[in-house]
Amino acid sequence: MLEKPLTFLSLSISLLTIAATPQWAQKLQQRPFGKAPDGQAVSLYTLRNASGMEVTITNYGGTITSVKVPDKNKNFGDVVLGFDNVDGYAAKENTSYFGATIGRYGNRLAHGKFTLNGHTYQVPTNDGPNSLHGGTIGFNRRIWQAKDVSTANAPALELHYLSPDGEQGFPGNLNVTIRYTLGKGNDLRIDYSATTDKDTVLNLTNHSYFNLAGPGSGTVLNHSLMLAADQFTPVDATLIPTGKLQSVAGTPFDFRKLTRIGERIDQNNEQLKLGKGYDHNFVLNTGGSLSKAAARVEEPTTGRVLEVFTDQPGIQFYTGNFLNGQTKGIGGAYQFRSALCLETQHFPDSPNHPNFPSTELKPGQQFHSTTIYRFSTK
Ligand code: BGC
Description:
This protein has helices at about 10-20, 85-90, 270-275; strands at about 30-35, 40-50, 55-60, 65-70, 75-80, 100, 110, 115, 120, 130, 145-150, 155-165, 175-180, 185-195, 200, 205, 225, 230-235, 245, 260, 280-285, 295-300, 305-310, 315-320, 330, 330-335, 340-345, 360, 365-375. By secondary structure, it is mainly beta. The protein has a single domain (about 30-375), classed as Distorted Sandwich (Beta-galactosidase, Chain A, domain 5), CATH 2.70.98. It has a 9-stranded antiparallel beta sheet with strand order 11-12-13-14-29-23-22-17-20, with no helix packed on it. Strands 1-2-3-4-5 form a 5-stranded antiparallel beta sheet, with no helix packed on it. Strand 22 and strand 23 (about 305-310) form a beta hairpin. The protein binds beta-D-glucopyranose (BGC). Beta-D-glucopyranose binds near residues 97, 279 and 316.
């Protein structure tokens, strides 16, 4: 049977529908990204907004693989370090957590231990004597289930992972959902939610390495930084917080006013020596408000600006001090201090410091946290 001929009316209706559909109300673009070490195929999802900002995320490790934003001359470029296929992320040698989702417990747990209800749990120690970023196989090496949850207003991706009871030594079946939404104002919003069926601890973050001049374009020492923090948590020689909250006043940790990152990084300061630069948790004074910037970064040559908003109590400012040129990714070899991380988080090793805000999650509670990375130029 012949198909119904396209009448003038139906043609006009279809054209009207296309015209009325905002550019960004399209399905996410999905393409293959290779195979994870267990043979499963993983994908790359592209979120694109009306002004052309583009974010790509893979369901391997819930990893942000690229963030393309305009500079002051409206030239778009990537501002995060990463790889163009899954092998780079999955490689055993990759211990840098480029762009990855971090869990169950972001940053360090002293000796991989914590106690809940009188029971001491042991999780893998993968960073000297301590546990780092969830253990040997953290959320960064898991395959997440992806769902396109875009709306007419914004492209959005949801990733889900069920971390079984006892995984990496952590108690409780933990159901985690992460929603990435790309807003019209060049803001990437990350919403984390989780539930558990046993008392557990949780500290989720994203580990993007930013260089606002582009990956492989030198150090970040000429970027300027503002951190809304009056205190930071000093560390011991294994980068575990001592438990003190130390004032930043009169120290190289005072970023309350926009300051060039390289200005004081090599000062003769015990904490800077322990971190090989900045690798510290800052105590945010934003009171969990998503409308006050927790951090602001400016890059002078491109004019690019990044602002970070979060409801979390802390932020790990890390200047890529463990990058050493051995890793080749998009843009070239990743050199010492060639990127910076702003990991919104609860304080490292909180379960072992009763004076730090609690990271416990109990059955019946709904965990929720939000971080927004907003890009602009000046
Ligand atoms: C830590 C660093 C670590 C890096 C990558 C950061 O969150 O604070 O010490 O080297 O992650 O592993």
